[in-house]
Amino acid sequence: MTTDQHDNLSLSSGALQLVLSAEQLIADKGIDGVSSREVARAAGHKNHSAVNYNFGSFDGLIEAIIDYRVRPINQQREVLLTALLEQQQQPTLYALVDLMARPLASELLRGNGESRYLSLIAQLLSRGHWRELFLRNRSRSSALIKISELMAAQLADTLPSEIYNERVRLLGSQIIYSIAEWDNLQHKGQLALDESSLEWRLQNLIEYAIGGLTANHNKRN
Amino acid sequence: MTTDQHDNLSLSSGALQLVLSAEQLIADKGIDGVSSREVARAAGHKNHSAVNYNFGSFDGLIEAIIDYRVRPINQQREVLLTALLEQQQQPTLYALVDLMARPLASELLRGNGESRYLSLIAQLLSRGHWRELFLRNRSRSSALIKISELMAAQLADTLPSEIYNERVRLLGSQIIYSIAEWDNLQHKGQLALDESSLEWRLQNLIEYAIGGLTANHNKRN
DNA sequence: GTCTTAATAAGTCAAGTGTCTTATTTGGAG
DNA sequence: CTCCAAATAAGACACTTGACTTATTAAGAC
Fold first, then answer.
1. Interface contact B207-A184, CB threshold 8 A
2. pLDDT class for A50, splitting at 50, 70, 90?
3. Is any atom of nucleic acid chain D found less than 7 Å from the CB of residue B35?
């Protein structure tokens, strides 16, 4: 996992710089607070139509960012899942939640924290148009599906399906928003994240999540 | 609690309409995707400077929204806490988390769901400038402080303080982002929220949160 | 009634924006 | 080297925005 995971991406170096600059700007100023021209400027262009030229539109740019980041994350999930299933056919809940969260958390350490992807996802998921664009563009990896199934196998019996589904939703939101918050705090200098501090935070998040997933459900009329 | 909780607010009816329209627009289009002029238009003004006239600036408008919504929420917390402490001096964790979440969740039912305040908070908390503006303007209610203390009394012993603090942060984020998500889904017609469906979701959220807060913490090297 | 002040409307201006179009430059393929 | 397509730059246009300024209207005190 030391090689660059962004190879086969059909992004010219110019387009790549736009993607990276856009990520930064959006994390800082909000997806609706950033203009195409601003992105082009930040990417070192005098050409104010660079975004339009490379991606057709601002939406196209966002889709490119998603595509650029989602692939390696899913890829990492596949690798980790395969390794895990070789060890134990019935992985623990801990291992499964770890598998969901870790590849996202890893983004925070990528290239001295220059990936602001988590902040972007959190913003995309928060509102109408962008949420739909994201859901349309993330390719659900087979790993994630398999993880869901393994998790359901351990929980679905003990909980009413309505409750189980809701808790899985809570889990998904919590993972993304929590890690996104770490990202934002880190980039405001209010949180120092290195491997070890990320590790205990991640561990704690997983423990919290498992506590939540497996909590007793008391039916109250 | 049937009387209007927005009395002593020093908002003229014109200003109030601006606040309400702004809330709606921001929930739909994002805080950075809405202009002062647009808010004025949506509030029925031909006067495109209405926001500037009433609040001085867009930031002033946001502060007015926060002020308008935070008061009754804190007020409700005070009332509920007082009632709770009359029943039992050492309230359960369940009651305490309930106390944190319920006044926020209630917003979703207010006036046929016309308060989009949760969506706003979630957006404000997500990014730089707005986060700071929010933190500057929410007046921390004495109830919330008391709730924190009561919670700490039950948990701080069993967990390392670093872990405890992090879990409280997780709790806070989860409450706000989850309820905000209900808000967004509700207003896209993807979630039907009445009192009873809100109730079981809230109950489940609390159960999840308590499971998380009290989860075992395993020190790993 | 007049007067005064708050509220609303409307005008203005420089700055920024998306999109489309038209140069100009650059880096290979032949 | 020539030539051509891709990349970059720059122009143009209609539109929106925030902030400030200047009418105009409404409403209450006296």
1. no
2. very high
3. yes
